[in-house]
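User: Hello, can you help with two protein structures?

Assistant: Certainly.
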Amino acid sequence: MSDNIILGIDPGVGSIGLFKRDIDKSDKLSEQLIGGSILTFPTGFTQKDNMKSLATERGDKRRGRNHIQSRKQCKWATLELLINLGMCPLSMEELDKWRKYDKNADIKHPYPTSQLFRAWLKCDFNNDGKPDFSMFELRNNLAIDKGIDLSTTIGKLMLGRVVYHMAIHRGFRSSKGDRATENQENRGIDEHEDLKGAEEGKAKEIKNIMQSYNLPTIGCALYYLNNIQKERIRASKYTIIAKQNKQELEYIFNLHEELGDNRLNMCKRIIKVVFKVKPLGSQKGNIGYCVFENNKQRAPKSRPEFEIYRAWSFINNIRDITNNKELSLDVKRKLFEQNFWKSETFKFGRISNFIKKELSNPQIKFNYEDNFEVSGCPILFLLKENSFLGEDWDTTSISIDKNESVENKKTNTK
């Protein structure tokens, strides 16, 4: 056998092709092949058409489980609040059996079997075995105030049933502009922002119904479509927005003065629980490890030290391609102090204009285009501009006496 034998390997998604070539045998490739084989193995994909990996399928199922658990937690939190407000006939013991795990129980997380609670779910408030209203009819009656006194026991149960219905069907909510939610909570209860993002297009049909027939709330519109027009609400062209449900609750609490002077604060408590959005999970576990110290993680992007490093790395890479030289240290320092303490990204054109003004040379050219996006230093900006530490935030130290803080906490608790 010749010594000039080459082993060829052709790796694929679901197989590996092997072949041997004897280059001394002939000059033609087809005659050099003296043997071959194919090894096949599972591809790691569940669907050949979509090429969906096992990890992707596992993630989809996990997200589905988390979604179901989030809906359950919303129901439990809403029921707990309604029980405390006297708007739900369920007892706290039965709710705890449903939401808390008991390893000694025969049935884990048993659904409440209270007859009053089952009747409340069916809108049977007089316990005659027959529903008194449909859900849309009840929401319409509360918004129009058809002689319903919400200060009575039955009236509170009706209001609680409407709140629980909204907790189950909260409606669509756009994630656009989530940073402004904190400011929205501090505003008056009668102020409403316009629909944002995809909400405007989705709510167009139902808004036209409300405007055409002068309906005050989304519940009245659903009652009109379902009970009068006999149109199907689910899986239809009508999309309910979460903000419309919030406005309906505020409208009902404003309308029924018999709930007392504290009704607006009660409404805020209910909205905070029913429409609570689960915060995003921390991503700090995804930070990579250092190249030089393998047992230590890199600095997060939100660290002030990393923002300084990123800014100076970019500044040191700026070159004057007209004269083929770097910037002077004084210009670099001024550039960092006057341009990078920003809370958002900005165009390189701002840096270009600044350097041209400093060097008094409008003809100078750089190795970056004017529309190149440059990252600012948002954490540094917040620490300097909005921090109670003031200008000396980076050198100020705060010492806290643990014993004193514990005593203050006990005093505040009392």
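That covers the first. Now for the second protein you mentioned:
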Amino acid sequence: MSDFALAKLYRELILLLKILCSIHSDKSEHSNRQILKHNFTIFGFRIEILKMHINIPEGKKIYFSSDNHLGAPTYEESRPRETKFIQWLDEIKKDAAAIFLLGDLFDFWFEYKHVVPKGFVRTLGKLAEISDSGIPIYFFVGNHDLWMKDYFKEELNITVYHEPQVFQLAKKQFFIGHGDGLGPGDKGYKRMKKVFTNPFSKWLFRWLHPDLGVALAKHLSVKNKLISGDDDAKFLGEENEWLVQYSKRKLAEKHYDYFIFGHRHLPLEIELENKAKYINLGDWISYYTYAVFDGENLELKEF
């Protein structure tokens, strides 16, 4: 490589570092949210960096919930849990600046072109009401609703993420995701997830009539532990908790104040290095737990 090319590469690397350190902000439609954004060209490629920043007005809070598994083991048996979850939504909407739902809201979800699974209209209606009131809701797909597409965005105005994301909430850095398939181990589920998320697999499934496809998927979702990716809901020790190990690896690359995950069905709060914390939200099956952040501190609570 010539001296000229090396000098150009050096200048572009310096430019990239400066941009990463001083990204300007563009306000979104909600006054308490900002999308930190910068467009630039480097190495001949146009790149856009996005990072969500949510301010928390005085008296407001941010709420986190995960793993309702509505519909399991049957629709009728999950109705009392759905009612309790809706009561929680009614309670928190009074002071919520934003709501994060970290996946597995349903025990199974698939979006055909013109069909979604029957049921859960009370939950969907409540989420629509909250979203329409101006409270942003962010949904992270889990291993039971990973076939979610654009229904939530188009019908409920809820942003849907298929991968973990970084958020700045007030002055704290949050790494947020459902948690399935992260960290070491869980190789059987990781292989299965690749099959399930393959476009050809989804195309094949769509050819099944919904009455057959949904019934089959619900049966497997409840009965097959490889598909669910869940172990028995017991604490395995910090060294054997894959999400804890994953958080430690991410923390070695960059500082985050909080790692927030679901998936394990256990309410956990573990101290990491440099005052960081790993939080697992538990579930709405056995624990009815959630997290709340007031701009300074985050707490796990039971409803």
